[in-house]
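Running this now, will post back.
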Amino acid sequence: MTQIHDLTVLELAAAIRGRELSPVEITAHYLDRIERLNADVGAFYTVTAELARDQAGEAEKAVAQASDPAALPPLTGVPIPIKDLNMVAGVRQTLGSLVYEDNIPDQSDHVSAALRAAGALMPGKTATPEFGLPCYTETAIGPPARTPWDLSRSAGGSSGGAGAAVAAGLAPAAQGSDGGGSIRIPSSVCGLFGIKPTRGRISSAPLVPDLFGLGIDGPLTRTVADAALLLDVMTGNQDGDMYTMPRLPDSETFLGHANREPGRLRIGRTKVNAVEGAEVHADCVAAYEDASALLASLGHEVIDMAPPFTAEVVPAFETLWYAMATLAPVAPDREDRLLPLTRYLRDRGQELRAPDLILAQAYLQLVVRGVWKILNEYDVVLTPTLALPPAPVGWFDEVTPAENFERQKRFTPFTAMYNVTGQPAVNLPLYWTGGGLPIGVMLAGPMGGEGLLISLSAQLETARPWKDRHSPLW
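Update: finished.
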């Protein structure tokens, strides 16, 4: 028997507009699952049950009064949680830190407002590591975010709560953000589709701007079409954005690309990465080879390519990461509330001299110009998403902060390069180990090429469906 949480975002939205399901009924179903399962998976830091019920009541009234329900906003009545790095007016925003445990913003940011304007309801704020810095979600704010496929293992980060929520059936989809892999990492370890859009596609206003252009919001979903719809909703720029992308033509949507054949593509592939000592686990190699064979079987040309980045770029990226760790203001009398890793990263950032920071950014930009000479030979690039299977909870924190950071680099040696270039990239849940752990693969496209990635991903999804492959908590 089909349950509400078996339905995709598009299916829920259609059932609401067709008056087959009510937003109140849907919201009650998800809030019940959150109450029963959140302690197990650590998906939410803040559950906004009363707000969600009020919004559901408003949506139900709008559907009942609509002369043409098909004309309602596309996400009317669909619950979509917001990552706790993002601002929602009147709702606690902790940034994953005890320093901000009582912080309540008085306005919503661009993405939260865009999702609400599209009719989405907000059941709560999902777990994120302190200031979104690590690739795993274990903080003092709430329990660790765990992948529902194996509760002894991490859901990744920094959108770990978002990934856990969707994979456990606590939400049909979730909003996340990605500054070094933070959408693709949890998507990989939670068996989801996730997309990091092109730099400048989505505004972060009025949040502190990402001066380096590394971070951007995006969706984590169970299907490609759901991600495309959410990307359509999130897309947009505001005055003062440092990076912008032209809007799609009025006749074109990302959702439309989910129903479009990609054509025969030239796909470069490599499992070589730029992080010294980051050996790719056999399960990740198996997922990569399996995806290569699937792409070839669909008629694409799959070619081994030279790795675009080498180890020389890693110190420059680290410099930017250290600097970003200092952006969240912390009062001196609250410094002791920070986690050891955060203090380590902030200390490194505060030691930086301005010329060092400028040189690191300039050096990466110089490298990227050369990288594009390699990337432009291909329509799409295939790599593993991660170098290792989902990590055990506590594995990163069992060592010193310096070694913790090294472990994170060896765990995620592929994802950050596309934050540096700014190009779009997706995680595809095409492979599970014999023990039932999801292992993702990553595709990256040209700047502005989300449509191409969505078309290709939808083709792969049709050839190897994953929507109904459910975690044990389902």
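DSSP finds 15 helices and eleven strands in the chain. More later if anyone needs it.
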